[in-house]
Amino acid sequence: MSTEPKPIALPVTAVTCLEDRAHIERAVVLDLTAGVQRLRLGPVSALAVDRTLHAELTADHPATVLDVRMVRSWTPREPSPPAGNDSALRHRVHALEQEQQELGQRRDRLQARLGLLGRLATDLLREIGEGAGSGETEQLRWTRELDRLDAERDVHAEHLRTVGARLTSLAAELTETQRALFHAEDEPAELVGHVELTVDAAAAGPVGLRLSHLTPCALWRPAYRAVLDGDGLTLETDAMVWQRTGEDWSGVRLTLSTARSALATDPPRLDEDRLTLEDRSAAERRTVDVELREEEIGTLGPAPVLGLPGVDDGGEARVLRPPAPVSVPADGRAHRVRLSAFTAAAPSEYACSPELSPLVTQVVRFDNRSGHALLAGPVDLIRGSGFSGRGTLDFTAPGSPVELAFGSSDDYRVLRHAEESRDAAGLTQRTVITRTVRLHLSRFSAPGEHGDRVVALRERIPVSEVSAVHVRLHKEACSPAPDMVDAEGIVHWNVTLPPGGRRTVTLVYEVSASAKVTGPHRGARGPHVRPQRGGRARHPVRPAG
Rounded to an integer, what distance in angstroms lies between the CA atom of residue 311 and that of residue 324? Predict the structure, then answer.
């Protein structure tokens, strides 16, 4: 064992922060002697995972690592001033100790002052005796000096008695408060870890050591800040880093990775999936049971979960690095680390889907010019007036377009009114349902505001997946005619509104079904018609708006 009185410091030099843990790297230069020796390094975090501990020496020195292990011990906590989140008892104890220390120093000063006044009185009395013996008579001066010394001694003695009484009561109060703190917040000793390194060196001399291990209680998540200025947008990519490993990271090279080291690598088990065929009955051949369903357009990424979400990296491990060393204290709080920033042209439009919400939202579109993938995460929205809200940014590959909603605009009002009529054709025996949707859009402009604005309206119509049900859009009855109808049944209009203008948009479509169609479709609403023939055959689901 090393005979050094203190262990060799082993600072953290590099950290790779994963989704739920961190890979710590430490570096130090050791002054080795020839032969086998055991060194004690640290202190290090007691949370270090033992099986991941790895040590290596520089290759240009004839030395070999024989053994490396973690040693943990319980040590009393060092006294430190209370933090802001400590209890009132701890703050009271600290205040009483500070007052006791200040009163003790004042008592020492008063005692020294009284001692000095006593020596002055002794010198004055000796001078009076010597003067009286030699025939000198300075009665007035001697009386004045004695009175002044007695007055000062009385004042300082009274102050000393006051300080002594306060110290006595303070000691009793401090004892009671410490006893209450001990019973209320009895903290155990702190678990401290050290690294024991056994090295065989062929020659004496300095040698570099690099030690690495995994540590839990550290994680990171992406966060963004979008600043909209006219037709330009500045997107700042940050990383929110939390760590409570027991030691601060000061000036370390930080690497952020989305790799999941704890994810199992075993392939999933294969189970049998038996498919059987069964003839339909005569009643099932005569009828088709259909229903309307609501579906969202399929998107990539993990399903939302309660609590802190995981990192959505698009299925591929991503690595991000800050441009400069960073410092993250071990306080368990979120610390923002800047990763990158870029400015791009960001044309915006005002969009509204009245069936989902009557609000008109400003949507900004721009390209990802950060040079790396934008991971899914929250984004702070900043406009010229300041902070305007918080949105969500989805996973975006480098160079891909991005859509970001900057909240609703109070200058617009949208009303939606829908009505439905039903008719039956006698010859074809088909039931025809005609639906008419009217959208009333108004713009409230401030005095002196000029310029037209285009509002993108989105409405949807059902999409049929069976031949027995037909959905047809009456473009001649729509006012104005839709600009586009996509395969998902989303109808698009670009409505131009002047200041204070109003427009009404009308959508008319019909759903017709043959006589053999049964089910709740006649009164239901939704973007798709899904067939269920006897509960056996199911058509595939297609994304809808």
Answer: 23
